[in-house]
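DM from R.C. (forwarded with permission)

"hey, sorry to bug you on a friday — could you get me a structure for this? deadline for the figure draft is monday and I only need the backbone to look sensible"
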Amino acid sequence: QAQLVESGGGLVQPGGRLLLSCTVSRVIFRFNTIAWYRQAPGQERELVASITTYGSPDYSDSVAGRFAISRDSAKDTVYLQMNDLKPEDTGRYYCNTLPTHPEYWGQGTQVTVSS
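My reply, with the result:
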């Protein structure tokens, strides 16, 4: 049974918006910082944004000011609102804890920014 499940990716034009969702099993959600990661073709996976159990967010320099991470305790879900998307945001997006647990990696959701 998947512990974290990503959804919401798609194809969007530069400057567009997408909302990603990460549904997390309750125990993991309640006791862990949850983060979004992305992996572009031919590149290593990188940390994009994270949010603590108290709701404190943190962002990589490349997305700060454009992306917003949030968590909904009623739904055990973490969201990533992505605004002003750029072609360099293209990649597969995953959620996991921070630090990561290898067994929590899921299938991810593909985000493609292209005109």
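R.C.: lifesaver. The radius of gyration is 13 Å.
me: no worries. The beta strands are 4-7, 10-12, 18-24, 34-39, 46-51, 57-59, 67-72, 77-82, 91-97, 109-113.
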